[in-house]
Amino acid sequence: MNGEASGWRLILTAMALLACVAGVLAPGCVRGEVEGPPVMRPGRDACVACGMLIHEDRCAAAWLIERDGVREHEMFDDLGCLLDHERLAVDPPRVVGRWARDYERRGWVACERAVYVFSDPDRLLTPMGSGIVAFEREEDARGVIERFGGEVMGFDRLVTARREWMEARYGKPR
Predict the structure, then answer these.
(1) Are strands 108-110 and 94-101 parallel, antiparallel or unpaired?
(2) pLDDT confidence of 29, banded at 50, 70, 90?
(3) Which of 13, 128, 153, 163 is deepest in the core (most CB within 10 A)?
(4) CB-neighbour burial class of residue 124 (10 A; exposed 0-12, middle 13-18, buried 19+)
(5) pLDDT digits (tens, 9 = 90+) for 97-116
(6) Which residues contact 132 (CB under 8 A, 6 or more apart)?
């Protein structure tokens, strides 16, 4: 009987230990709320708008969207892709946040806080030919204007300028 009791004690101890381990590890298995900019993987992430792999990280953009209660990041290889994709969406998702890569510093900056250079795409080369790059600091944007020309603007003006440029070049979407 003594051996049988110690066997049960060993089984109960092992079960208690497993319960503790499961309690510690289980929260890591639950997916938390997605927020903030994504982690970029150049050469592995593809643009959701055009399908190209993102190689030129300093021209990239991303947004965090929510569909049916599920949040996910989508990446763009060019700021023009982000702007056009959002403008032309038939069933637009709820946008939680937008980010652009700082052209000089290569970190994420919230699109609403960024300063943009909209330049001649033949002079300021970007992956999809938009001629649009973003900066966290206006003085960095002014330095690019000196080299490539163009105009410095905020996000709201950029959205309008890109739409006008696309319509002048390709006509209004149907």
Answers:
(1) antiparallel
(2) very low
(3) 128
(4) buried
(5) 999 999 999 999 999 999 99
(6) 78, 79, 80, 83, 116, 117, 118, 119, 126, 158, 162
